[in-house]
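Anyone up for a design puzzle?
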C-alpha cells in the first residue's frame, strides 16, 4: 500500500502540520491598536517583539511590534494595526506559528500534533489510528478511531502506552482488561 495519506485524518502519514495554533485573539484593548490574546501554548515566552505569527485560517503573516501580559492574557501590538478600530477586525482569529523551530522536548515527550495519525497496535494487531487527544486533569486520553468507525479511549499512562515510534508512525499499547470487547 503506497498511499501516503492517512485514511482517517486525510493528513500525510510522515509529515507534521505546517501551522500550530498558539492563541486566540479576543477584543481590542485601549485606543492604540493593542488586542488581547488568550494563550493556547505551553511556550508563551517564545512570543517576542519582531516575531512573525500567522493570523486566521488563511495564515496571514504579521509581525509582533509589542507584547505585554495582562493577568492571564497577552496584549499584542501588530504591525500595521495602530488603532482600536483597525485591530478590531482581527477579533476571534486564531494565532499560529510554524512547526519549524519548536523547542525540543525531553525524551519520551511528544507534541500532540506528532501523535495525531499514529497507527496504534497491540502486539501485531492494528487497533486503529489516533484521531484526537483529550486533555484531562489527570492525564491525556488518546481517541483511537478503529477501522469500523468506532472509537477506543486510551489513557496516556505508562502502563498502557508502551512505545512510540514517530519514524515508523506507530504506537504500541497494552490495553487493560475490560477496555475492549473481544
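Challenge accepted. My sequence:
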Amino acid at each position: 500500500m503506497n498511499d501516503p495519506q492517512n485514511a482517517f485524518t486525510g493528513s500525510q502519514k510522515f509529515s507534521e502540520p505546517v501551522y500550530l495554533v498558539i492563541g486566540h485573539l479576543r477584543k481590542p484593548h485601549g485606543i492604540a491598536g493593542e488586542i488581547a490574546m488568550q494563550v493556547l501554548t505551553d511556550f508563551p515566552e517564545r512570543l517576542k517583539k519582531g516575531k512573525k505569527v500567522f493570523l486566521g485560517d488563511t495564515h496571514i503573516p504579521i509581525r509582533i511590534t509589542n507584547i505585554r501580559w495582562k493577568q492571564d492574557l497577552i496584549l499584542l501590538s501588530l504591525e500595521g494595526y495602530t488603532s482600536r478600530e483597525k485591530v478590531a477586525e482581527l477579533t476571534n482569529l486564531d494565532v499560529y506559528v510554524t512547526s519549524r523551530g519548536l523547542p525540543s522536548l525531553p525524551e519520551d515527550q511528544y507534541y500532540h500534533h506528532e501523535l495525531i495519525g499514529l497507527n496504534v497496535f497491540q502486539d501485531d494487531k492494528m487497533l486503529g489510528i489516533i484521531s484526537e487527544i483529550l486533555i484531562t486533569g489527570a492525564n491525556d486520553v488518546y481517541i483511537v478511531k478503529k477501522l469500523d468507525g468506532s472509537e477506543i479511549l486510551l489513557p496516556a499512562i505508562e502502563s498502557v502506552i508502551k512505545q512510540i515510534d514517530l519514524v515508523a508512525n506507530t504506537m504500541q499499547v497494552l490495553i487493560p482488561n475490560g477496555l475492549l470487547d473481544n
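A detail worth pointing out: Confidence is low (pLDDT under 50) at residues 1-14.
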